[in-house]
Specification:
Blueprint: E1 5-9, E2 12-16, H1 23-40, E3 43-49, H2 59-71, H3 90-103, H4 107-118, H5 121-136, E4 140-143, H6 145-151, H7 154-157, E5 164-169, H8 185-193, E6 202-208, H9 216-226, E7 234-238, H10 240-243, H11 249-288, H12 291-305, H13 309-329, H14 332-349
Helix pairs in contact: 1-11, 2-3, 2-4, 4-5, 11-13, 11-14, 12-13
Length: about 375
């Protein structure tokens, strides 16, 4: 409800104003829901690996962004940028920009101000890096790619019994990756997933601006194919969920999807086992039908009813397979296993992040 409603009753005017949740309250709710999700799944902390954590290496990018603003006839005049003369010749302007960068004691805030102002895809790549620690505190362990390599999984190895870590990898590395030149986040995710030493204590995700919220799963499948990673072992979360949503509830929902992923894949496998078994048994029942009986059911009854024989066949198969499905799930152990997976998924799904989908799920249309 975006507009107020005015009701006239008994000569009295009543005004109903829409409830508008404040940005701070919505963001606090998103952060709390993320922490609740992590706690439910016994995630001690999130390890976030991104080359942009090497803020000192962003000098040239900072200069390029401000030069682009100047060339487009735009300008920023807040938080120290008022020192710049946007009418100066390009060489003088760039020199002043670099001096501003070098003299700043908080380069991250300078860069964040520019990224928020531009609101472009490149900014989406940086904003989460500059803000996430402020919002999630010690729950987030930040590393450059080189720091990840030097750590040698020690953070994960130091987890208490029963605890796990959620590992988020940026996809594209341009800085802070001298020890893994030529590799990207998908390579690091693959190495972690295939590590017999620590993979069972982690949940893995790729957190990138290279894809939007609507095609996260498409890129998960693409990365799985391109880098020979088991698609069931990692999930993709778009940085747009964080960068372009001041409430960061989209990011919280992305984390929920990531945590749901292994449980949903497990449920799919259990469902497929039941369906394969029931299909096999239903097929065998059709094989066991005598030729005369099969002809009576498929050909003669179809002719009498004025039905298409193929439709009759599908109807017969549906009856037989449905019967076998219920016969199989009547086994107490299989039913309990299936229900346990559903219950675990529901516990995660019931944690509300405050997120409202910006686009329709095309697979549900």
């Amino acid at each position: 409800m975006d507009e107020k409603i005015i009701i006239n009753a008994n000569g009295e005017t009543l005004e109903i104003k829409p409830f508008v949740e404040s940005l701070e309250a919505a963001r606090k709710h998103a952060i709390e829901s993320t922490n609740n999700l992590l706690e439910l799944e016994q995630i001690a902390f999130v390890i976030y690996v991104d080359d942009k954590f090497d803020v000192s290496a962003q000098k040239e990018e900072f200069k390029a962004r401000l030069s682009r603003l100047k060339n487009n006839g735009n300008s920023i005049t807040t938080n120290g940028f008022d020192e710049l003369n946007w009418e100066d010749p390009e060489p003088k302007f760039e020199s002043d920009v670099l001096r501003l960068w070098e003299q700043s004691t908080n380069k991250a805030d300078l860069l964040l101000e520019v990224c928020r102002y531009l609101k472009d895809d490149d900014g989406a790549n940086i904003i989460p890096v500059l803000e996430i620690k402020e919002h999630y505190g010690e729950k987030i362990k930040t590393m450059t790619p080189d720091e990840w390599v030097l750590d040698k999984y020690s953070l994960i190895k130091g987890l208490n019994s029963g605890e796990r870590a959620l590992c988020l990898f940026d996809f594209e590395f341009q800085h802070g990756n001298s020890l893994i030149h030529g590799k990207n986040g998908a390579h690091l995710a693959k190495e972690l997933i295939e590590s017999t030493e620590v993979s069972n204590r982690t949940i893995c995700g790729i957190f990138s601006h290279k894809f939007s919220e609507t095609n996260e799963d498409e890129h998960r499948k693409r990365y799985a194919q391109d880098y020979s990673i088991d698609a069931k072992c990692f999930y993709t979360v778009s940085k747009n969920r964080y960068a372009f949503d001041p409430q960061i509830c989209g990011f919280a929902e992305g984390i929920k999807n990531l945590l749901l992923h292994p449980h949903v894949e497990e449920l799919k496998e259990k469902a497929l086992e039941i369906l394969k078994e029931s299909n096999s048994k239903a097929s065998q029942k059709i094989i066991d039908i005598s030729p005369a009986t099969f002809n009576q059911i498929i050909q003669k009854s179809s002719l009498k009813e004025g039905a298409w024989e193929i439709s009759t066949l599908f109807r017969l198969y549906g009856i037989l397979s449905k019967e076998e499905n219920f016969n199989i799930i009547s086994d107490a152990a299989k039913r309990q296993s299936f229900n346990e997976s559903v219950t675990r998924i529901r516990k995660i799904d019931l944690i509300d992040t405050g997120y409202n989908a910006v686009s329709k799920n095309q697979q549900l249309i």
